[in-house]
Amino acid sequence: MKFGIYVGSRAGATCAGPADPQRIGPLVDELAAGRPFVIREYVRWCGGNTSLEREIDASGDLDHLTMPDDWYVTGGRELDLVLSYLPPVADLDGWLDFIDRALDRYGHLVKYLQVTLEANFPIPRIDGSSPGVIAALTQGLPHARAQVHDGVQVGFSLAEPAEWLGGDDDFWKSLTSFPYAQFAAHVDYVGLGLYPDAFSPHDDVHGATLHAVNHLRDRLAEAHFPTDLPIHIAEAGSPSGAHRTPAGQVSSLTTLIDASTAAGATQFELFALSDADSASDTALGTFGLCTGDYIRKPAYENYRTRIKMEDL
């Protein structure tokens, strides 16, 4: 299992302050301890939706990586860059142009490229709510695949099982209509966003995690993907506030990692290094291993220890 983390300071529209690169660097170095370590980042295309740009701080389009360029390709770090599709109206040409510009800007840094964010999840500020998202995924990913450098893995991510989200049958019906050569043949991995107990208590995080990965495998098989396609836990987390405690966060994250390993996931990326808003009374504010001021929570040492265990 390869590990990683999101290092920015934002969770959706929640953000109490800017990220601090000088604090981030040493914390990541200690987590990774020289091992290959994945750094997850997001750039979002809002297609001229200025109100959404202001809300999620995307007005600069491609100027939102947290750290200097060289940082992502030194010390064993590997950049997992998410290209998120959030226009107010369907605009495939604009999206493909954005992909081109993103690769011009960041292609030399990228190890993993994720085209769209949770296209099966139709909630605000997530790609599944955007008009034309199926075309953005099924045409955007092969478009990107044809341009990336050798060794770059290209994939997409989905949210948790349908019964947790209200159903995503229409998404899978659309995806299954594409022949293998038209879409699935271009995909190197599929990511899963996994938050089984983040927004409400759950008595069986281990079972819920196994179910989520197995559910995804079954759906992918129906949509013409090979059975051995790698699955990454592209996002996973549990808060230390809201209905949880710092100790509860440790317990949940330990279970998430152990269950993801048991389910055969090949990569696990935690959301996030620091809180988006430590004073928030909602789950989105306190996913971090550290507070918004970069003070370590118990979960930080827990994650560091778990990463180190991979050497044993």
Automatic annotation (TrEMBL):
Gene3D superfamilies: Glycosidases. It comes from the Bacteria. This is Arabinogalactan endo-beta-1,4-galactanase. It comes from Hamadaea flava.
